[in-house]
Amino acid sequence: MAEIVIVTREAPIATVQLNRPEVRNAISEQLMDELVKVLAGLDGDDTIRCIVITGSDRAFSAGADIKDNFVNATPVTMLDQDLTSKWEAIRRIRTPIIAAVSGYALGGGCELAMACDIIVASESAQFGQPEINLGIIPGAGGTQRLTRTAGKYVANELILTGRLIKADEARAIGLVAQVYPGASWLEDAKALARAIAEKPPIAARLATEAVDLAWNSTLDAGLEFERKAFYLLFATDDKKEGVDAFMSKRKPTFKGT
């Protein structure tokens, strides 16, 4: 039986590939359980400093597996299954995560990408929250994260129509950080991951926490966290290495201490 999540370690980065090609990487309970397990394991590995989540050329993920998740679902089964909590578990991973999207990232797939720290895309990528066409709404963060990214009016237009957007439009509204050529999108995403992995890992983790807090709290609370994190980093060996390297005009080597 084929693995539904394939992990490739190329320390200091790891690539995590969703592998349900027969259903365009549709999200099932099993897939999300395995994904969370894999990411937690990588998060505890000090040799891995950045993670890339990807799918195939055709699909990052086309969304929830409708047959698996929705056909016979009731409010009670949805509550017991608690599938949407898995997206929040991914958000709490401390190691920086890049979503590398080619093809479709729809519904829960788009929400999975938005649970990551950075989204990059192939020219072929298409994003959307088409849940309205099933008589429901996004339930794994789509209404909240898309609104915080694109603003109320753009988010409402996309969610209420279910319209799909291409990579260039996704970048224009702030959903995508970079759009890469179709021939090299995954290698380009890995190159970005390696660039991040070269940075001090403690500082990188605190930076992503601070940026995430900017979404989820008040300005005062975010500034307070940022200030304390900034001061805390002066206790790290990596801060000393960074300053010493700058003064010596050499490239720093960060060890995560």
List keywords for this structure.
single chain, alpha/beta, 2-enoyl-CoA Hydratase, Chain A, domain 1, Lyase 2-enoyl-coa Hydratase, Chain  A, domain 2, 2 domains, six-stranded mixed sheet, 12 helices, globular
In short:
With 257 residues, this protein is α/β, with parallel strands linked by helices.
The proportion of residues forming helix, as a percent range, comes to 40-55%
Examine the secondary-structure arrangement and name the CATH architecture of the largest domain.
Alpha-Beta Complex
Number of helices: 12
Q: What does the largest sheet look like?
A: 6 strands, mixed
CATH domain topology of the largest domain: 2-enoyl-CoA Hydratase, Chain A, domain 1
Given the helix and strand composition, which structural class is it?
alpha/beta
- For the record, the CATH class of the largest domain is Alpha Beta
Helix/strand order: EEHEEHHHEEHEEHHEHEHHHH
| Low-confidence parts | none
> Any idea what the radius of gyration is?
19 Å
Distance between the termini: 41 Å
